[in-house]
Please model this.
Amino acid sequence: MNETNVALSIQDSPFARKLLAFVRLSDADLAIMSDLYRRRRRFAVGVDMIHQGQTDQCAYVLASGWACSYKLLPGGGRQIVDIQIPGDFLGLRSILFRTSDHNVEPITPVQASEVRQRDLIAAFSQTPRLATAVLWAASRDEAMVVEHLVDLGRRTATERTAHFLLELGARLRLVGLGDRKGFLCPLSQYRLADTLGLSAVHVNRVLRELREEGLVTFQKGRVVFDDFDALVEMSGFDRAYLDHEGPLLI
Amino acid sequence: MNETNVALSIQDSPFARKLLAFVRLSDADLAIMSDLYRRRRRFAVGVDMIHQGQTDQCAYVLASGWACSYKLLPGGGRQIVDIQIPGDFLGLRSILFRTSDHNVEPITPVQASEVRQRDLIAAFSQTPRLATAVLWAASRDEAMVVEHLVDLGRRTATERTAHFLLELGARLRLVGLGDRKGFLCPLSQYRLADTLGLSAVHVNRVLRELREEGLVTFQKGRVVFDDFDALVEMSGFDRAYLDHEGPLLI
DNA sequence: CGTAGCTTTGATGTAGGTCAAGAAATGTGG
DNA sequence: CCACATTTCTTGACCTACATCAAAGCTACG
Model:
């Protein structure tokens, strides 16, 4: 396969799609990105991809499937920090810290590309544009964690659930996995509860309420926005933090 | 002032102290860091340093005083995302995103060094070691935001408060502003409430409870750890995410 | 076709919120 | 150094959002 073909095929990956939505990347940039994509691995549901406290972890880019990163608590509970969808980086921090501070669990069967520290650094020195784009994507993820924190700290269970579903929808749209109508969602109500800091029972009640009010329907692995605008309104959703212009490129 | 003197004086800054606790930096690295420190500015309490939605913000390194970054909610409430203490970077994300997604408010009178995007990039290309050190510090801050998220999602008000005070203590110790006994803390109970996702009234009750149980005393602008080990135990505090080895340097 | 994981619902308990009001600090101008 | 204003702290009474417990109906998959 010559360089142009590589660039063409990588362009359809969710990772490239996400970055390209905000940054122009040359064929050369894409070819380097494609190199990072080489070491493909599969993960089955039920076995964590990354373990808290374990050292010498590597990072991944999610090619297909969903995963989530979470922290376990002494008491036995857990808090899901972030849901990862195709195109997301995963464990980027554990490249800098030698040991991971959280677990990552596949929610569905996952295909992911292993990214070694040395490869990433090599790629970065070859193409600063790609480096900036990746850093920018990482910052965007961090902005979402912050928004999640606000969810937990200051929004009611209903607002929080609505807000989370809207954000997830916006992220999925960016990689072509959903639209303004809704998206396929493999999350169980248990996992939703661990994400939203609620009990599974209460999540169920909140979902029923949202459904009965004609706002969103989450059933049978599918989220449908019945009244998008009303949902945005009631949850205080502000797309600003997702809609930033692209990074200031070097 | 020659280069050695510059390096000697910058070494005492909280910023350098923090990085030097984990990374060896040469005199040349420190001289470059010192350049970043040049544009000193002062901020009075009551006027935000950075405004949500405002564009072309710059970043700062806190030289003295405390600040906090927060998000406002449509309903009028707010959530404090992070407390910044001397040595902390502030608004690093708004260098990548052209517009800031949160506010930053001084808690005490603040002295901070303005860091321009171009200067930072120039510094980074001159000394990759410094670049890695800064990225690593940023990752460490992100790890703290994650821990904060876990606080809000899955810990009781008491655990959460204890955990937060322990973490703050650990951070302050790193820059020489506290020890295992305690630290000076200019936070009001209102701000503590906005940080912990609680009401001010409840924060007050929790603090009383912690005091009466002989765990921590927070009074008159001073936090005293009355029983450090018991506090660590009850809050499930795990220093791992703060005690990482330094970054893997290039 | 059985068993394990989800979803749904009801009944009851509790952590933490809200309202209210007084007491201490802290700051400000004279 | 004092009088006054403002913020901050403290406590009590009451209320609500969400947790917990329990149990039944679904779904799905080996």
Residues 188-190, 200-201, 204-205, 208, 219 of chain A lie near DNA strand C (CB under 10 Å from a C1'). Chain A has two domains: 3-137, 155-242. Strands of chain A lie at 40-43, 59-64, 67-72, 78-84, 89-90, 103-106, 110-115, 182-184, 216-219, 222-225. Residues 155-242 of chain A form a domain with the Arc Repressor Mutant, subunit A fold (CATH 1.10.10.10).
